[in-house]
Amino acid sequence: MKTKRIIFVGVGGQGNLLASRLLGEAALASGVPIKVAEVHGMAQRGGVVESSAVLGGARSPIISDGEADIIVGFEPVETLRALTKANRGTLVITSVAKLPPFTVALGQAAYPETGEVLDLIRSKVRKLVAFDAMAEALKAKNPLGVNIVLLGALTAVGDLPIKTSAVRAALETKTKKAFLEANLRCFDLGAAAALAA
Asked: What is the pLDDT of residues 117-152, one digit of tens each?
């Protein structure tokens, strides 16, 4: 099996780690070897959170610069920061919903124009799939479901060796029952948005 290296990057509290764990559960249920790692950083202060999932026979979950096959970004500037992991063959899936860092709120920095960020990303990779994952989560009446929206997008366009049904089954068994229906709606809306982007 060909190795596939996936980076998930976002801001603390967006559910990045849950998304990578759900992908890991689905891979294991599908018989696909996977290694998952997490870097929490300053998550509790709204800082960057990164996780990686390596599908296939890799020995390590570490993804070095230029090695990512897929980057899943929960916020456009965090996606841009992760671009060092990309190469010309990388697929980037990102939400365009902004979560400016506290330095912007304090007036110590300026948030770049989203269009410029996306143009820069697009110029460095094979394909960019960009849409507002927060808007899709709100359609599902689940504002905390951005992570599941992006997991749906990854499943739809990431060319993974994991069946969609396995990811849905992981959602059903590894997320709280009270949120299951909304999470499944988020997953389906994310898949549809990615295919349309």
From this structure: 999 999 999 999 999 999 999 999 999 999 999 999
Strands of the sheet with 91-95, listed across from one edge: 34-39, 48-55, 4-11, 70-73, 91-95, 127-131
Compute how many other C-beta atoms are within 10 angstroms of the C-beta atom of residue 137. 26
How many other C-beta atoms can be found within 10 angstroms of the C-beta atom of residue 143? 10
Question: Could you give the CA distance from residue 163 to residue 88 in angstroms, rounded to a whole number?
Answer: 26
Which ranges of the chain would DSSP assign to H, the alpha helix? 16-29, 76-81, 102-105, 114-124, 133-139, 146-157, 164-174, 177-196
Residue 84: which of 121, 116, 130, 126 has the closest Cα? Answer: 121
Share in percent of the chain as helix, strand, coil (round to 5)? 45, 20, 35
71: exposed, middle or buried (C-beta count within 10 Å: 0-12, 13-18, 19+)? Answer: buried
